[in-house]
UniProtKB/TrEMBL annotation:
InterPro entries: ITPRIP-like, MAB21L/cGLR. Coiled coil: none annotated. Signal peptide: none annotated. GO terms for cellular component: membrane. This is IPIL1 protein. SMART domains: Mab-21.
Amino acid sequence: PMTPPRGHSFHLELDNAGQRHVRNFRVRVQLECTCGKEQQGEKVLCFLHQPEEELRRNQEPSLLDTLCSGCYLDVHKTARWFCQLVRAIWPALPQSHSWHFMLLPSRRSCQFKVTNSGESFRIEMLFGVRRGDSDIFVSSQSRDALTPSTTWPETYAVAEMKFFERIARQAPPDSLHLRCLQLFTYVQLGFGFSTYTMKTIVMHLLNAIPVSQWRRRHFLQRLGDINVDLRCCLEEKRLNHFVIGNERFPQEISLPLDIASAEPANLFHHLAQDAAAHSQAMSEYQDL
């Protein structure tokens, strides 16, 4: 995650309060007074109160001048700056002697490929800003190619990862909860159900069924539960988000108050609004 450098602060602003099913933010960058402060024994120039000419001579530009559009953190500028940094640093790394490095085109992340004589890896680095001290972040990643460069969608990936880590600590050694998720996700490839839909259903089941009942001997029963839950959610045109508004979400995973107390978000809201989409989803379920 990104943290504001000295003399700056980040302030997250909800960008679409009227859109219930999408939560986008903008990250407003504000200059902070650093008068009288020192860094490594040297006096720090204040972006707010020092003359611009002195700042240009003696200090690096502020974040507002480099990575922002107006006063908002810009995803495209951030990704471009980071890619330039990685490209400049790579020749100094020991790995550069045995691996070929190639930057890949991306406007909202830093993507690159490293290759040697026998292996090739594609790496993508995303950028995020943490919401306070919680496990919720806003991220540079977006599904929509037309997302404005100052828009940062909210992401629940870290909170969900911590949920799976919690399950892993409690689960018996022969637990197959991840195998259930992997198998069902693989089976539905080519149908209209997203990986996130299957992940959400499995997370709800893990929160409801004791981890002791996800062992090898329960494998077929749990697969049946996933199948039944998917059918019920499709019939009801409702699949509640696992994090937003979930009263049974583990309290040790930190959520902002507006997330914890929100109305449960319906991941199948589009099926409730579009009869043709619902009919197609039911047909694909029957094929599955």
